[in-house]
Amino acid sequence: MNTGTTKAERTRNFIIEKTAEIFNRKGYAGTSMSDITEATGLTKGSIYGNFANKEEVALAVFEYNRSLVFSSVQAQLEKADTYFEKMMVYGRVYKDVIASVGNRGGCPILNTAVEADDTNVPLQLSAAKALFSWKKNLIYLIQKGTEAGEFRQGVNAEEIAISIIALIEGGVMFSKVTNDYANMDHVLATVQQLVKGIRAD
């Protein structure tokens, strides 16, 4: 047992883990308190004793689901030796990443962004924060790769980063709607071509 974790923290984590897939599949609006109590085996009082409301649970769950995707990608990035190879990771692993989270309802960033839209500002801001963080990481890799001589000088790192994110999330949406994750092959091949296109001669 982790002695550094309080009973309240363990209960919060338990609620988050048990409801993560439900929120990702049903969304914030579609997930009821009954879904939460059924998944956790806890009473409403216990839930509200650890979270102020359902929205607070949803925000914590989004961060948990996002971290699952991030950790999966990060593990592959750490295996790559060059900045070019790290960028190429995004053109390879997302099919497997999305297929794995597909069993949990799809990409949490896309799901949350689409559902929240203008109706739930806190969730919308959380999705935006995740996208900005992803963009920042890509820009960093491109800039460091340029400094290392792996990418061409004058490359617009922000433009490339946004394009890669848009391609991947668009591919996830297309694959999910058509229920054919093979569509990600075409999208990720384009991502790879985009990365190869900025490689220094």
Automatic annotation (TrEMBL):
Residue range(s) of DNA binding per entry: 32-51
One Pfam family, short name: TetR_N
Coiled-coil residue spans: none
Keywords noted in UniProt: DNA-binding, Transcription, Transcription regulation
Molecular-function GO terms, alphabetical: DNA binding
HTH tetR-type domain segment(s): 9-69
Gene3D superfamilies: Tetracycline Repressor, domain 2
Record-linked InterPro entries: Homeodomain-like_sf (IPR009057), HTH_TetR (IPR001647), Tet_transcr_reg_TetR-rel_C_sf (IPR036271), TetR_C (IPR011075)
UniProt keyword annotation of DNA-binding present: yes
Family annotation (PANTHER family): HTH-TYPE TRANSCRIPTIONAL REGULATOR LMRA, TRANSCRIPTIONAL REGULATORY PROTEIN
Protein name in UniProt: Transcriptional regulator, TetR family
Organism: Dyadobacter soli
